[in-house]
Amino acid sequence: MASDHLASFENTRERLAGPDLVRAIAITEVLICHDGGMISAWCHKTLPFHLAVLGFYGVMLFFVLSGFLIGTIILDLLDRKASPKDWSIFLVRRWLRTLPAYYVWLIVLLIPLAYFGPYGVTWDEGKRVLPYYLTLTQNLGWPMVSGWYGVTWSLCVEEWFYITFPVLLLLLLACRVRSAVAFGTILAAFFIVPLWWRLSLPTNVDWNEVTSKIVPCRFDSIAWGILAAWFYRRFRIITTFHIPLALCGTFIVSIIWWSDKLPFPLWNGRFQSMAIYDVVGLAYALCMPAMMRLSALPPLINQTVRSISTHSYALYLCHLPLVLVAGDLQVRYGIRIRYALLFTIVTTLGGAILSWRLVERPCLKLRVRQSFQKVESRDGHSVQNKLSGF
Q1: How far is CA 296 from CA 17, 32, 69, 152, 384, in A?
Q2: In this model, does residue 273 exceed pLDDT 70?
Q3: Which residues in 213-247 are b (16+ Cβ under 10 Å) and which e?
Q4: Any idea where the domains of the chain sit in the sequence?
Q5: Does the pTM of the predicted model rise above 0.85?
Q6: Which superkingdom, per the lineage (predicted)?
């Protein structure tokens, strides 16, 4: 049975509130971490620890959501024995959703670097690392080549996942491996290889810059979403327990988030650096069925959440570079904090809105529809499967 229809940027009337809410929560956590940390530094203060680590949880939530949505599509393609053309449509749709906005922002952010001096790095370093950013290889098998445009590390993880998972799956299918066996084998590999890679790293590496940002080290974060999609699809009884599962997942995340307040250590540092991705990934995966059951929110809240969700990708791409520009203007030209803050808010929100209207939405309209057969909904009515704006 094919999947339920998912939230879609292209089908706003049937758009589920659950994925929108997850995106809104994730981007809010990232903004609190990054912008909150920078603004606190302007005031010569430190962002409280439990707010400073929200960036990790926000990115993890994005990864699991991405895995769940693309996992649903991949399972649909497998079930209907999709042709190579269908798989190519899947990849092209992904690239049209993510790459145009990325390259536009990459070019836009080079302008202040070239003409107004450094914000984080010099122009010479920007030119040196630009080929990596153009090919999305800035952290392919090594730490980020530069601190400039650092938020793009997670985009690289997702883009390479979108390529490697389907390609390896199709290779096994071409060898006449049964689809269920092929899918399970590749999914298992995407859990095993990242853990092995992290364990192979020296124990004294920088966790934030090495263990958590090298592309293969984070594939399992997305794989948890794909596993959740498989369980949600194959064992529909779990929808009956979506609330207990979500409460369990929320409890796990809360315990880890506040583990420093426990009267006993939750785990040692080495184990934490290896396992935290999978423990948090599992916790978020447990929340996915509840996300899919949330079809609507109160009107005012729903409108706000949907707007944040719609602009979440552009917000992610532009927020940190723009707050760094504001900080650079403050240091070099003595701009007052309130004006730097106003600059950050106006450019970030304005940039996200323009990115959506001028780049992302037009590119969505260019995408070929990923067609699927009509499927039966839970109430027995025939509905057209609507895939995510992914």
Answers
A1: 5, 26, 18, 31, 19
A2: yes
A3: bbbbbbbbbbbbbbbbbbbbbeeeebeeebeebbe
A4: 12-384
A5: yes
A6: Bacteria
